Amino acid sequence: MVKRRVHVAAAAIVSEDTTQVLIARRPSNVDQGGLWEFPGGKLAPYETGFEALKRELHEELGVEIQRAQPLIRVNHEYPDKHILLDVWQVHAFAGEPFGREGQAVRWVDKNDLFNYPFPAANLPILRAVILPTECLITAEEEDEEVFFTKLERALVEDKVRLVQLRAKQLDRDAYLARAERALTLCRQHGARLLLNGEPELLDKVDADGIHLTSERLMSLERRPLAQGKWQSASTHNSEQLEQAARIGCDFVTLSPLRTTPTHPDAAPLGWHDFQQLVETAAMPVFALGGMTRFDANHARAVGAQGIASIRDFWK
Ligand SMILES: Nc1nc2c([nH]c(=O)n2[C@H]2C[C@H](O)[C@@H](COP(=O)(O)OP(=O)(O)OP(=O)(O)O)O2)c(=O)[nH]1
Ligand SMILES: [Mg+2]
């Protein structure tokens, strides 16, 4: 059977304070009926994704989009069709959204999204909605006080909300001590903290998740973490991206986009190859390698979640 290919544009409409997102319930008599969704629908012939998005939000919710940005593109195989969900984050709109087709419409806290039943294709979208566009990877820093001064600056001034604690030079005990203190600080600022290392670290420090090296990623046969903890991984090529999908990573970094002083010998991907790899990825992807906050919009435009960086946040 040749499966139908369906191209759908959908919107994650976020509230002004960015804490909430608008979802709608699909009527019980349609495909995926009764489940919650991001409003949108199929592209009409000759429409671009964004044109379809504008038309669908007008038809389904009675709102006009004023400002939107690509969020994520998801390819998913349903038993009867191949679907491409082209999802946009809508930052500003005119009008008061309501269910023009009689469907239930609700603003929900981003952190409650996992409590709503969505179609199977939506899992990567939920992750993309919840994750920020910037990820700080901490630098090697021997001095504890300097480390925490710099981390606090990034949390307060740059408003970083996702931190990966990378400290290869520390032994396990020193790492765990730093992780405990970093977790307290991150919690104070509403930021998530991922530990870089083996999954068992979470038994000692109850952080938000684990970041796996590409080597550890390739050695695993299944997801080592419980759902509810975030699992990310370092990737550099399509093989590693596929493995990340296979073991259920929630998101990944893909590097190096540019040449960097920390990895001078690694061949940079450049935006073109990066974009092609992201297109095949089944989860949010952060661009890594010589990235600054000024690259975040471009990264989003080519399909990434945003950027991950050490140097740009470590001052
Ligand atoms: N809009 C939307 N569709 C989704 C999501 N997740 C998901 O699997 N889908 C699937 C369900 C449908 O098979 C397809 C979208 O079709 P649709 O029923 O919204 O299309 P439409 O608005 O153009 O409706 P119609 O004119 O064909 O009745 O994508 C989602 O989050 N939002
Ligand atoms: Mg629809």
UniProtKB/TrEMBL annotation:
Its cofactor is Mg(2+). GO terms for biological process: DNA repair; DNA replication; thiamine biosynthetic process. Its EC number is 3.6.1.55. Mg(2+) binds at G40, E60. CDD domains: NUDIX_MutT_NudA_like, TMP_TenI. Keywords: DNA damage, DNA repair, DNA replication, Hydrolase, Magnesium, Metal-binding, Mutator protein. The keyword Ribonucleoprotein does not apply. It is an enzyme of class 3 (hydrolase). GO terms for molecular function: 8-oxo-7,8-dihydrodeoxyguanosine triphosphate pyrophosphatase activity; 8-oxo-7,8-dihydroguanosine triphosphate pyrophosphatase activity; 8-oxo-dGDP phosphatase activity; 8-oxo-GDP phosphatase activity; metal ion binding. 8-oxo-dGTP binds at R26, E37, F38, P39, G40, N122. It comes from the Bacteria. Residues 4-131 form the Nudix hydrolase domain. PROSITE patterns: NUDIX, NUDIX_BOX. Belongs to the Nudix hydrolase family. This is 8-oxo-dGTP diphosphatase. It comes from Onishia taeanensis. The lineage of its organism: Bacteria, Pseudomonadati, Pseudomonadota, Gammaproteobacteria, Oceanospirillales.
